[in-house]
Amino acid sequence: MENIAQYIKDIIGDFIASKENSMKKWDDEPAWANALVGFSNGADPIFPFFKEDIGNFYLQPLEILSQAYPEQVFKSEQISVISWILPQTDATKRDHRKETHFPSERWARSRIFGEQANVKLRQHVVRKLYEINIEAVAPLLSPLYKSAMSEKYAFASRWSERHTAYASGLGTFGLSDGLITPKGKAMRTGSVVANVYLEPTLRPYEDHNAYCLFHQKGTCGECIERCPIGAISEKGHDKYICSRYVNMTRKYVPKHYGFDGYGCGFCQTGVCCESGIPKELQ
Length: 282
Fold this sequence. Notes:
The chain is α+β, with helices and mostly antiparallel strands. Helices cover 36% and strands 14% of the residues. The strands form 4 sheets. It has a 4-stranded antiparallel sheet, with helices on both faces. A two-stranded antiparallel ribbon has the order 4-5. Strands 6-7 form a two-stranded antiparallel ribbon.
């Protein structure tokens, strides 16, 4: 196959266009808009940097692939990381923008049923690559994946989908720790590690906060005002306060929307980076 990168983009695009991408309501309304896809290389020095910065528990692409295929010998420079952004739909952003205290039903559904679709997308990409003899694994579905505590950042995990998207040229971090992408901050993300060389996507930034108005110009701070529990300040994102709020929504969503779910995302809507990079930074 000549253009595996395009094949992968087509796999993802076809999946998002399918009935698998569903809110499980409103005539199977899609959970996600069209995806944005990027690639990074397994030998990129950014991955060892993540391990050093976040914690020694952080996994490298080679470690994840080697665990999934223990009889194989892989080379980091021949491994690629496939990353994608799944933007929230206009309908979900519209509904959630109106809320001030608890998540809208569409937002909560995208968090539960949309992420279920994201899990299936990870599995689908792995399966389609395996069909053309390319070993692949989704880190979040690997037995190596688990939560962890970072001495520097508190709540963390052994693989970060947002950091992977950053490494793959898809966005930079904002004041609230959300990833600001060309499709906006209102999104979810996923990734697969594969034994194939793909030309890495250019990272058009060096600063990990390059797309955040607050960090670049000292202006904005809209995510501070949007947070219903005061978990965001000029100092950044308090993960402990944030976690307490999210746990509160686990009672609200079943009571009001009739399914077992939760959600927040206020810092992702009603802000200037909701649907793209702020114009002042483009």
